[in-house]
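Below is how a single chain appears once it has passed through the pipeline. First comes the sequence as given, then the structure the pipeline wrote out for it. We keep one example in the README because the format questions we get most often are answered faster by looking than by reading.
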Amino acid sequence: SNSGESAELLTIVPIIKRQGARLVSMTGNPQSSLAVEADAHLDAAVAQEACPLNLAPTASTTAALALGDALAVALLDSRGFGVEDFARSHPGGSLGRRLLTHVRDVMHRGPDLPEVSPATSLHDAILEITRGGIGMTAVVDPQRRVIGIVTDGDLRRAFARSLDLRTLSAADIMGRSPRSIAPDRLAVEAVTLMEEHRVNQLPVVDAAGILVGALNMHDLFRAKVI
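Resulting structure:
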């Protein structure tokens, strides 16, 4: 209250006091009733309103907003409020999605997960890529450890080399030791990894390197972390 005498506010002051709550006031008059009743007072006085008639609250409302922002920032600092706390309070916002969405939340898994063995024919590897719908298939050993991936790009490069695709296996054209990510990493970290290495797909592996999922850039777009 700029005047500190707003009747609707002064009416509830006794109720606040009875609840044992601390009262902080922000007014343009340190001698006002509201300022005197408060446990702490913040002075938001201005010399004159921006209104030509010096009547409509203009400069005073701007001062109150600035002081309120300063108070909020001071509280953030004193309480050690970090970006993770902000994200938990705003889970639906852009920052919340970036800080709360993990790879496991957006990755393909289970029956949808495209994977082949190194000996799989290229014909069957192409069918697996098509079935998976993410532009790649992981190549795994008998323990399902990822040893490579075959992507649409690998197929194009094989065509460009005029190879006889009928005689090739997944191992012949796969990218070896591919970039991968763990399921508990943030989805935004997958975005960074893809951008840094100019790839559009990532296998998701556990600590032992065993395939547990896969994702591509479109999955991250749909999750709105980009």
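The chain has eleven helices and eight strands.

See the next section for the split statistics.
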